[in-house]
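Table S2 (text version). Query chain:
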Amino acid sequence: MTQYLYTPASSQEHVAAPEIRHALRTATRAHRRLEDEFEPFGWTERCDLAAELRDMLDETPVELRGLVLAAEFMLESEGYTFDGWEERLHASNLISAVISGLHQIGGDAR
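Corresponding structure-token output:
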């Protein structure tokens, strides 16, 4: 005999659009790289990460694009050295806000 379990709609997994899932993966990867103290973070790494964020813009909802652009600007600007934790933390917090927004827009996509 087969038993069927009732799962309330509020606890069912929300399936987000593929674009949101891809943007979420990219943002999470960028966030980890910014917060990893052992990650080399020279000019080349900064430009590579900025390029990843730029590629993510098409998949990012309009409301979050300003945050992505701000982090990208910090990474590509020579005005930021990323020598200390303050600048890395600021960029990381911008990406963290993007991740939070993507979760709100697309549900708990993983």
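Notes on Table S2: The two ends are 34 Å apart (CA to CA). Helices lie at 18-35, 43-56, 62-76, 85-106.
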